[in-house]
Design a protein that fits this description.
Blueprint lengths: L5 H7 L8 H6 L29 E7 L18 H13 L4 E11 L4 E2 L19 H10 L3 E10 L23 H21 L4 E6 L10 H14 L3 E7 L12 E7 L1 H4 L5 H5 L2 H17 L3 E7 L6 H8 L12 H19 L3 E9 L2
Parallel strand pairs: 1-2, 1-9, 2-4, 4-5, 5-6, 6-7, 7-8, 8-9
Antiparallel strand pairs: 2-3
Helix pairs in contact: 1-11, 3-4, 5-6
Length: 366
C-alpha cells in the first residue's frame, strides 16, 4: 500500500529539515529562509490509494510555539491560520493522509518545571505557548478528512533541545537542580490540557512522551502510569511514545503505538542507489532493531521523524546547524532525495510491511 505512493511522494513532497520540533530532538534549531507554498489545484493532486484506518502516511508539521516575530515570505505570521492552511492543503494534495501537529512542552531545565516564557534578554520568540490557531488548524485538517496526531515534545524552553537525560551529547546534559518530580508534574498538567482539547477535535493519536531516554525506564513506571491514566481520563484516541531504534523503553509497553525515531539514518547512508541503500549496514541495523522491537512489544510501529532533506545528505544540514555553512549555501539535490525517499518505501515493502503501520516524514513548516 505504501509502495503505491513511492513515486508520487518522492517527486512531490516538500521536506524542509532542521526548523522545528524535530530539530529539538537532535539539538538546537536554526531558522531557514522562508518558503512560499504555491496554491494547490485539485486537478494536480494525487489520488490516494485506500488504506485502513490503522495505517498512516504522515507528514510532520512544525507548530512549536507562538512566533510573533516570524513571517512567511509573503508577510503572514508563520503559525497563523492563513499561513498554515496552504501547507495543509499541500500535505493533503501530495498524498499524505495524516498530519502530525508537532509542538513543545517547554521545560525550565534548572528546575524541571513548566516554563511558558523565555525571560532572557533578547529572546527572539519568548512566548512558548502553543500557537493561538493550533486547534483551529487541527479542526481544518480533520474537516479535510486527514487523520491527526498531536505530538508535544518536552524540551528545554530556551533552545528546544529535548529533555533526554539518557542522551550522551553535551547539549542534553541537565543541571543537578533538575527535578524529575517537577518534570513529571509538568507533563501531567500540560498533557491533560492538550489531551482534553485533542478529544474535542477527535484527534486520532496523542504522544505521551518523545525521546525521554533515561526516564522512560521501569524505575519511573509509577510516574508514567499516573500520566497515562490521566490522559486516558480525558482522551479516547490512541496513545503513542517515541524512542530511538536502539532503545528498550518501558513506556512502549503502556501505549497503543510504538514510534521509532528514525532520524537521518537514510541521509547518512553514503550510497546513492536504492540497491546500495538497501544493503547499507546502518539501514540493515535499523531493520534488525525494528524486528526486535516488534517481537518484544507486540505493538503497531511507526517509523517516526524520517529526515531526508532536499540535499539528500545529513552532512550538509549538519554544517549549517553547527554554524559552519550559511543556509543559503545548500544546493538541493532532488534526484538524490527522491532515491533516498524511494528506498524507505522499498524497505517497507520488502522487509517491514508486516511490522510497520506508518511512516512519518519530517517536516513541513509554514
Amino acid at each position: 500500500m505504501f509502495k503505491q505512493l513511492r513515486n508520487t511522494i518522492s517527486l512531490s513532497t516538500l521536506l524542509i529539515l532542521g526548523c522545528g520540533g524535530g530539530g529539538g530532538v537532535i539539538g538546537p534549531v536554526t531558522t531557514p529562509v522562508p518558503t512560499v507554498i504555491p496554491p494547490v489545484t485539485t486537478s494536480s493532486c494525487v489520488v490516494k490509494p485506500a488504506i485502513g484506518s490503522d495505517k498512516y502516511r504522515s507528514a510532520i508539521l512544525d507548530m512549536r510555539f507562538e512566533q510573533p516575530n516570524d513571517f512567511t515570505a509573503d508577510g503572514k505570521l508563520v503559525n497563523s491560520y492563513e499561513a498554515v492552511v496552504p501547507v495543509l492543503n499541500k500535505i493533503d494534495c501530495v498524498g499524505f493522509d495524516t498530519v502530525v501537529f508537532q509542538t513543545n512542552i517547554p521545560i525550565d531545565v534548572d528546575t524541571g518545571k513548566l516554563e511558558l516564557y523565555d525571560s532572557r534578554s533578547g529572546a527572539f520568540n519568548p512566548n512558548k505557548n502553543i500557537p493561538k490557531d493550533f486547534w483551529r488548524l487541527v479542526d481544518y485538517a480533520k474537516n479535510k478528512g486527514l487523520k491527526v496526531f498531536v505530538k508535544a515534545i518536552p524540551v528545554n524552553h530556551t533552545n528546544d533541545v529535548v529533555i533526554c537525560p539518557g542522551c550522551t551529547r553535551t547539549e542534553f546534559v541537565l543541571p543537578p537542580t533538575f527535578s524529575t518530580d517537577n518534570f513529571f508534574n509538568a507533563l501531567f498538567s500540560y498533557e491533560t490540557t492538550l489531551a482534553r482539547e485533542a478529544e474535542k477535535y477527535k484527534v486520532d493519536g496523542f504522544y505521551v512522551g518523545v525521546m525521554n531516554l533515561g526516564i522512560d525506564t521501569a524505575q519511573y513506571d509509577a510516574e508514567w502510569d499516573r500520566i497515562i491514566a490521566q490522559v486516558k481520563s480525558v482522551y479516547k484516541g490512541k496513545l503513542i511514545y517515541e524512542a530511538c531504534n536502539q532503545c528498550t523503553a518501558n513506556v512502549w509497553r503502556k501505549v497503543d503505538i510504538v514510534a521509532i525515531h528514525t532520524s537521518n539514518v537514510f541521509e547518512m547512508a553514503p550510497s546513492e542507489t536504492i540497491a546500495g541503500l538497501l544493503t547499507d549496514t546502518s539501514i540493515l541495523n535499523l531493520v534488525g532493531d525494528v524486528q526486535r522491537i516488534a517481537t518484544l512489544y507486540q505493538k503497531p510501529i511507526l517509523l517516526d521523524t524520517i529526515n531526508i532533506g532536499t540535499t539528500g545528505k545529513s552532512t550538509d544540514l549538519g554544517a549549517v546547524i553547527s554554524g559552519g555553512l550559511p543556509y543559503t549555501s545548500l544546493q538541493p539535490n532532488y534526484a538524490l532525495q527522491a532515491i533516498k525517499i524511494s528506498s524507505v518505501f522499498e524497505l517497507l515493502g520488502t522487509k517491514l510491511s508486516n511490522r510497520v503501520v506508518g511512516l512519518q516524514w519530517s517536516e513541513y513548516m509554514p
